[in-house]
Amino acid sequence: MPNSTQTWWETDERLDTPQAAQFFGMKVGSFYVATSVGRISLPKYRWGGKDYYKRSDCLKLIEETRISPEVA
Asked: What global pTM score does this model have?
């Protein structure tokens, strides 16, 4: 597993939870909708047989797509 749980989110974890929204700095509904309808597509990294999202890459995409980065 990558070194820091503050930097990486396992792709098997659901994105429609308060924990995911808090990790990515979003409201629960707006983040889940943005990812599920394809408004943003999060890049994945492979580590030890599992896929992860890198927080900094995701925050950059969120900023570029102008989704309001409000914490739930």
From this structure: 0.65
Q: Which residues pair with 61 in a beta bridge?
A: none
pLDDT digits (tens, 9 = 90+) for 3-44: 566 788 888 887 778 888 888 877 777 777 777 777 777 888
β-pairing verdict for 50-54 and 8-10: antiparallel
> Quick one: which of 9, 39, 12 has its CA closest to 21?
9
Distance, in Å, from the CA atom of 26 to the CA atom of 45, rounded to the nearest integer, reads 21
To which H or E segment does residue 4 belong?
none
Are the CB atoms for 21 and 14 separated by under 8 Å?
Answer: no
